[in-house]
Amino acid sequence: IDPQSSGIAGNMIIGALVDLGANPDNLKEIMEKSAEEFGKVEVTFEKVVKHGIDSTFCHVEMIENKPAIPYPEFIAKIESLDLDEKVKETSLKVFERIGEAEAKVHGKSLDEIHFHEVGASDAVADVIGSIYAYYSLNLDKQKIIGLPIAVGGGRVNTAHGTIPVPAPAVVEILKDAKMVGGPVESELATPTGSAIY
């Protein structure tokens, strides 16, 4: 199994939504502008073929990232963004889901945690881009079914050191979802993608 066509991550969700009709030019503008409070990203879209299937790959390249900030400060920055209220409200719910999982895993309160990888400019772009694309396609009026998520295996380096895959936060976020381990030694499900799911 190709790790690039398995699992779940924010940019994978965005690519799929572009294939369903979301406007990539609008997405690029929203994603790059939203990330500015947290650093700088460059968003590009590329047509690719994975296992014979035509699809869109969303590249979210982190050009600059500001230092990790406490969760309440992070949320205040998201609340200050100039976004459609539905997009902002749902994005805040996604970040709250991640925050609650991180707090539980680290044995801290929500107000005590700092967002490291999850608060990076590329993760912010992924979440807001996914939610924006979702609403632009009126998918909130549709029934969406997801397959069990392949989460990968092995270990990954993070701001907290080397941790097992799936990351503890991913396990917490997906505890009520169907997951499958493996099938490769690689991180296939990110906290961001899992929380959007």
Can you put this structure into words, describing what you see?
The structure is a single chain. The protein contains seven helices and eight strands; from the N terminus they run H-H-E-E-E-H-H-E-H-E-E-E-H-E-H. By secondary structure, it is an alpha+beta fold. The strands form four sheets. Strands 1-2 form a two-stranded antiparallel ribbon. A hairpin with a 2-residue loop joins strand 1 and strand 2. Helix 1 (10-19) packs parallel to helix 5, helix 2 runs antiparallel to helix 5 (121-136) and helix 3 runs antiparallel to helix 4 (85-106). It starts with 9 loop residues before the first helix and ends with a helix. The mean pLDDT is 91.
Shape summary: globular
How much is the radius of gyration in Å?
Answer: 16 Å
Task: Provide the low-confidence segments as ranges.
Answer: none
DSSP helix count?
A: 7
For the biggest sheet, the summary is: 2 strands, antiparallel
* First-to-last CA distance: 21 Å
Hey, roughly how much beta strand do the residues contain? 15-25%
The chain-level structural class is alpha+beta
Biggest sheet, spatial arrangement of strands:
1-2
Number of strands: 8
Helix content: 40-55%
Element string (H = helix, E = strand) = HHEEEHHEHEEEHEH
Mean pLDDT: 91
Seen as an oligomer or otherwise, the chain set is: single chain
How would the blueprint of this fold be written?
Layout: H1 10-19, H2 24-35, E1 39-50, E2 53-65, E3 69-70, H3 71-79, H4 85-106, E4 114-115, H5 121-136, E5 149-150, E6 155-158, E7 161-164, H6 168-173, E8 179-180, H7 191-196
Parallel strand pairs: 5-8
Antiparallel strand pairs: 1-2, 3-4, 6-7
Helix pairs in contact: 1-5, 2-5, 3-4, 4-5
